[in-house]
Amino acid sequence: MPPSGPDNLAQLASPSYRLAALDQDFLLGDSMRGVRFLLEFAKADEALRRWGVRSTIVVFGSARVREDGPPQRARWYAEARRLGQIVSERGGAKHQNGDKVRDNVIATGGGPGLMEAANRGAFEAGAPSIGFNITLPHEQVPNPYSTPELTFRFHYFAMRKMHLAMRANALVVFPGGFGTFDELFEILTLRQTDKAPPIPVVLFDEAYWRSIINFDALVEHGMIAASDLDLLHFADDAEGVWEKLVDCGLKLPATP
Questions:
Q1: Over 171-212, what HEC string results?
Q2: Given its phi and psi angles, is residue 222 left (phi above 0), alpha (psi -120 to 50 degrees) or beta?
Q3: Does 185 have pLDDT greater than 70?
Q4: What is the reported pLDDT for 81?
Q5: Would you say 61 and 114 are in contact if contact means Cβ atoms under 8 Å apart?
Q6: Which of 25, 35, 127, 185 is 20 to 30 A from 84, alpha carbon to alpha carbon?
Q7: How many CB atoms lie within 10 A of CB 136?
């Protein structure tokens, strides 16, 4: 018999021997951050293309609003839910058109509250809707109304915001806090700088928004041009939001 030699167990167990695509220690390391960005873009993009999602209407608002909350908040929830229905029924999300694409699909941050309400309205209309969730220290969980195959989770806020913005035909912003402001001003900045095509931006409940942001003061102090205020529109119910979107040039699919 040939003499026995050393075994190769150490080599087989070495992290360097793992296939790179299966090595989580490697993939989650600092040097692979760019790859992780690419993966977060490609995974969602591939699924959205498979479903024929050409354009979206992004709905943002507070995760803290509940259907059974105080009267004002309950009304916000009900109107966000109704808006999800209206957009899905009239905007082109329910049925693929001749090019096998869907337009104006409801897209939200995927969480509870007013995001849930908009996804719920689309669900009740029989249309797909998108949830772009984010991993947080206090874990966010997806609401039960976004289409399961279109319910995504991101680590990077930047990539999540890119997906929210890149297909948007419109942005509707319900009352909210820091996260809602972040999405609103992201889109406003892209529009102000012409880094994004013209899309309607409608703020729901004008009294709320004017009570917390003095838009006119930004003009008075010379921080924005008076014409920048034309980027904003207001509405106080779901039908009013839809009318404002259409009046402001929302792109609708061609009638068969």
A1: EEECCCCHHHHHHHHHHHHHHHCCCCCCCCEEEECHHHHHHH
A2: left
A3: yes
A4: 98
A5: yes
A6: 185
A7: 9
